[in-house]
Amino acid sequence: MSDKDVKTVKSVCYMCQCADTGIVGHVKDGVLVKVEGDPECTPTFGRQCVKGLSAPFVPYNPNRVLKPLKRTNPERGIGIDPKWEEISWEEAYDIIVPKLKECREKNPLGLMLNFFDYPTYHLATPWSIGFGGQLYFGAATWCGWYHNTAYQYHLSFFREADYEHTNYILLWGAQAGHIVDALPVHSAKEMADARARGAKVVVIDPMMTPAAALADEWVPIRPGTDLALGLCFWNLLINEFELYDADFMKSKTNAPYLVGADELYVRDPETNKPLIWDTAAGKARPFNEVATEDTALFGEYEVNGVKARPAFSLLAEHLKQYSPEVISPITTVPVDTIRRVCREFGEAAQVGSTIKIKGVELPHRPAVCLSGRGPTAHRHSMHAVFCLEGINAIIGNLNVPGGTLGFAPYYKKRWGVTEDEDGFALSCNSTYFHFGSLDTYPAREPKKPAWYTLLDLCPVATFSDNFYPMMLSLPPEERKKFGLDYDIDVFISTHSNPAVYISPHEMTEAIKNVKFFLYFATEMNESAELADVVLPNSHWTERYDPIANPPFKFEAVGDHEWYWFFRRPMIDPPPGVQHWCDTMIELADRAGFLPDVNQLYNILNELNGSPQELELDKRYSYVEMSDAVLQNRYGVSVDWYEKNETQVFTEPKDIEEAFPGPFVPGRCHVYFEYWKRVKPEVEKVVKELGIEDVWDTDDYTPLLTWTPCPAFEPKNGFDLFAINYKVACHTFSHSYTNPLELEIGHTYPWIYRTPIHASTAAKYGIKDGDEIWIESEFGYRVKGTAHLTEGIHPECVGTSGFGGRLTRGAKTGRKVSPNWNTLVGQRLDLMDKMNSSLDGCVRVKIYKA
Ligand code: SF4
């Protein structure tokens, strides 16, 4: 067949959540036969990753859901046949709409929408809030918890390194720049270019991940001890090497704020502003009245009749306990290595240096520390993430060349940053609006929880979604103790596989507590098999997503143009199958709450009073609704993309937008006085609820502190840790049903086999290729094939990604590798009460199968 039989269509890849890659689809006789990076798409350099190349396999998955399905088997569970009955769309609506009406009448909070579909947040959020229901972010369980710091340190939900101007990249349990993080294709190219011009990469991780294997140095660390090592880095940078950015500390953080014996700020009696010590005036003055050069970071002063010290002075003293000699036995990282890597990092930051970009002189801090999920998915996650990401604050690299940059914190200077009365930066709503995510400062008022996510009990968290499965799993009388005196009557889920988030066995039991479960599926998976009704959903290759990369999400940081992606269908969806958002609009219309959805859409998308404001009683399609936001927010439209036959709209970015650090107002925290201040309020609510026995508030301290996780000490023969790590060919559970990705996964033994250190294997009499059981302290076990290596910490056994599918439908992905989530315990005592992070430290034992 000649080329003229092949039609090409420009679109945007969505084989992973990043959705950041401009592609060209090749379509022959209506069949997608190939996709490739679009050479004309400048933000992604015409490239695509291996997952993206495998896109044509997905729409033709034999396991595809093509018709509405109704469960006829009342028994639900893993591996149990739902005995599906195909039904018409009308029959499906006749089942679903009365459930929605009844729930809304009785208690709208009884509806939970769970989704992880970035391009649809602008609609799905107003849909759920318009109903009166609640939202559950679809994949927060093992997400990188740095989002909690990103608002404070980067004024954005995401952050990335400025690879173009950096010389030293410390990947702390992270693989940024290696196709597994935000902005994968763009960052991989930038990382490669940085390496080619001599940038050094050091990876701290229990596993020699693909990023570690390519790095200049891999530093193995005992799982769950990253906070201890991070605090040691703070100590060395501040106390021993004095490689911190003193000017940045004075002018852009609360380091100089004077603190009294009660650990709270000493404030000016007239203005109530926090005071700092003015060395020139020899007295304390409001923070906004003292020049940087006259600001004290150390000392003790008499102020308003009380003794006060700059927060930085307290911090420096507190950190002295974290010396390399103390921390080395905790982390297993040798003392010399700790000192050497930390000094290298601090010196690479070139504190005090500047760089001229496009004629503008800016601070230059060419060293970055990027943390990932591993070090921060722990019982004391909030301290860990502020510590690891805070290393960037210590060297003053926030939002400046060579450092760490937020995504779109300062777009057109319209999404501005403001400063509150205490002098702290507040990021603009547009940079974080989605699924109810919130800024982490200032603390919100704690109160009796309304949602299953218990967000009202987590006043300084950006989200607390891990509490949702926990609460759902509790019997009603236990749940009531948390203020939740209602059931989930309707659970709607899509682009998410909640049944296997944590312990699949425990999650399956939890989902059984839902009264009615509606799932939108492109293909059958573990969650769909638990649903009462499954509705077919168009695959991304078949759908429009006019806002393919929302503003809080991914776009190239630094000195690159702004760009906004537009996804168009490359092929038609199967007959009768449509975008799940159009089905949601239909449901809202039939159930009588569409005007409320439109109203919330106008409010949350800031359309009120604009020419694009939706009429409340009018029904719009998903594309029309998205077009309104496109036009209002970016000044571009669906028509523009279609007329220009492109998938990307670009705008120039000026230097202030590229490197907003020196230009935006406000400070960030290195001393967490507001945690301390909100602690009694949390305690009051906890006491009123009577949950003091299960809800501790010990982590609400102003100084970051190392506390071991429950799994720190081995117990009852469970003397190893099970860890998991990401690989470029797999993302989320769905990738394990893609034949090309599965085939690539077999290229490396550590992808589907179970890495175990050769010395550890010898101790257990295990040889390379042996079948082994990995059994966790929580009573679950999975089978793997031992892969003996030196590339893993000797106290660990590893599994990659999200293998070991359990669904009856995913025949290709079943048992391909052990399912790590099966080993994890879903317990409140393993969770961080500040942000809901679940402890990823899992103690296991291994034995031959
Ligand atoms: S990184 Fe994600 S969006 Fe980009 S090509 Fe790969 S799978 Fe597609």
Description:
By secondary structure, the chain is an alpha/beta fold. Among the domains are: 3-57, Single Sheet (N-terminal domain of TfIIb); 147-411, Dimethylsulfoxide Reductase, domain 2; 720-848, Barwin-like endoglucanases (Beta Barrel), CATH 2.40.40. It is 27% helix and 18% strand. Strands 5-4-25-24-23-6-7 form a seven-stranded mixed β-sheet, covered by helices on one side. A six-stranded mixed β-sheet has the order 29-31-30-33-28-32. A four-stranded parallel β-sheet has the order 11-10-9-19. A hairpin with a 2-residue loop joins β2 (22-28) and β3. α3 (121-131) runs parallel beside α17 and α7 (226-240) runs antiparallel to α10 (324-331). The radius of gyration is 26 Å and the shape is globular. The model has no long low-confidence stretch (mean pLDDT 92). Residues 13, 15-16, 18-21, 48-49, 51-52, 184-185 line the site of iron/sulfur cluster.
Features:
single chain, 849 residues, alpha/beta, N-terminal domain of TfIIb, Dimethylsulfoxide Reductase, domain 2, Barwin-like endoglucanases, 7-stranded mixed beta sheet, 6-stranded mixed beta sheet, 25 helices, globular, binds iron/sulfur cluster
Bound molecules: iron/sulfur cluster
CATH architecture annotation name of the domain at 147-411: 3-Layer(aba) Sandwich
Whole-angstrom Rg = 26 Å
Assembly type = single chain
The profile of the biggest β sheet is: 7 strands, mixed
How is this fold's topology laid out?
Elements lengths: L5 E7 L9 E7 L2 E7 L12 H4 L15 E3 L12 E3 L2 H18 L4 E5 L5 H11 L2 E4 L9 H8 L4 E3 L6 E5 L11 H13 L3 E5 L5 H5 L2 E3 L6 H15 L5 H7 L5 E2 L15 E4 L4 E4 L14 E3 L2 E5 H9 L4 H8 L3 H14 L5 E4 L2 E4 L3 E5 L1 H4 L4 H14 L9 E3 L11 E2 L5 E2 L40 H7 L2 H5 L9 E5 L9 H8 L4 E6 L11 E4 L25 E4 L14 H12 L2 H11 L17 H13 L3 H7 L3 E4 L3 H4 L14 H17 L30 E6 L13 H7 L3 H4 L1 E4 H6 L7 E6 L4 E9 L6 E5 L41 E7 L1
Parallel strand pairs: 6-7, 6-23, 9-10, 9-19, 10-11, 23-24, 24-25, 28-32, 29-31
Antiparallel strand pairs: 1-2, 2-3, 4-5, 4-25, 8-20, 12-16, 13-14, 15-16, 17-18, 21-22, 26-27, 28-33, 30-31, 30-33
Bound molecules: iron/sulfur cluster.
